[in-house]
Amino acid sequence: MATGLAMPDRFGSKRPREFRTLVYVSMPQPGLGFKDIDPHSDVMSTVISQIASRFRVEIAVDDSGTMFSVAGPYRQAASDAINALREHLKTKPGEKTVWHPFVLVSPPNTGKDGVTIILQEKKGWTGSRPTVKDEPLISMVDESAISAAKTEFKDALKDALACAVQNLRYIPNKMRMRVYFGRFMLKEWKKDQEEYTFQELAGIARRAGPRGTSRMDKLIGTPDIAKTLREIFTAAGYVPRTIRNDKSSDVKPVHSLILLTKNLMVESVLDAIQAQGKSGQIKYTFGPPTAYHRERHHRAIKIVVSSPDNRHDWTLDIQTQVDEFDRDLALPFTNRDLRKYIIFTGDVLSSGFPSIVMYDFFAKSQLIENVMGKTTWTYMLNNTYSVEISIHHKWGVNTRAVPQIGAGLALYGCDWDDDMETKDVSTEPRPWEEFSKQFLHIDNWGRKVDKKLDGYDDFLNWIQHVQSLLNKAAKDDD
Hints:
Layout: E1 9-11, E2 21-26, H1 42-55, E3 58-61, E4 67-72, H2 75-89, E5 102-105, E6 116-120, E7 129-134, H3 143-168, E8 175-186, E9 195-196, H4 198-211, E10 214-217, H5 223-234, E11 254-260, E12 264-274, E13 282-286, E14 290-293, E15 301-306, E16 313-320, H6 335-341, E17 342-348, E18 354-358, H7 360-365, E19 370-380, E20 385-396, E21 404-413, H8 416-419, H9 435-439, H10 455-474
Parallel strand pairs: 5-15
Antiparallel strand pairs: 1-3, 2-4, 3-4, 6-7, 6-9, 8-10, 8-16, 8-21, 11-12, 11-19, 12-13, 12-14, 15-16, 17-18, 19-20, 20-21
Helix pairs in contact: 1-2, 5-10
Domain DUF7905: 154-404
Protein name: DUF7905 domain-containing protein
Organism: Podospora didyma
């Protein structure tokens, strides 16, 4: 038994005297049927902590991720913990150890044939956005060809989501899933070619995911778009009453502060406090911070969809929340730190977001790369889906500067957050068998639903509906 091995990352309670059994285990090389046992991965450390707690042992992992030790009160406990960890590290059918964003292209309403696509460029864009230049009249296109194109896209989306859910089943941390609308940008394309067929664009987009030669800008334009969208969703005569929240006219904005570090996105919702005195001015304080991982390119679970016949594209993103109860992976700063080093000036920005000033040394000591303020209005479409309309203020690291302002739009399932709560996966994975059954429910309350439609059809119909409203709101904002 090796005695000089350095084991800096320990999980479980401190080793008491009755932990008489100590076992060192060498793991197979990652990729040969096993996943990487990266001790610095929050997801992996949470799983190891769950196993250590379940079997009442201590587990230590060396920095190389190729060996770990288990200390327990007796041999059987150590053996059971080893078997549980090995079982969790096995690569399961359909699970990906390296995740590259899936990039799909949705067919126009006229199908794939006879469509001409160009790569549009504009000032301020960091890339080129695929946009339909010419397409045939629907009356001149075979309906069966249109239906076949939609079915092919739906099947590709189902395959991507099926792959995603296999990875999600083994993540113990709380997660957040949203569909964000924005602009899909290509950073690489064929030289000296200005026009593309649908098939050519689909090939370029498919290769862009693994190569990292594309990006998704999750902003939809200026705050004017957000204002127009709010008016559209509030207008009782525009949105069908059966898909409209009757109380949408009473929607109150929610303000939150977002701090980006190298590895984390930390968000704190601002709690309003009614000030005392004659002014009656509302004051704010910071709520408990929540942190999400800023995943590296090969670990971020994203499914990006280019919609060249619409003004905006969309992406389904899944963020993993930091396990704030893990002693080794606590948040970089506390609620008390935020209240101490970020000051509300008393002024109010255009969206109603309270003006702030952050101490420079706090930004430097915490390695903060960006400071953003977000104001969000949420509307229920029905009992299944909701949309978030937001205005973003982006300061960089200098909160005394004039912020950049933009608007955002997101769609999500009303049950998604509850479905993605923290789960102990040390004994078995999350009981999710199929993405549609778990997340894409059909709400038939107050409206007739075609029985031939499944969860994917309903999901895509809602995305198309939101895109049509966004097209209307954005027509004067380009």
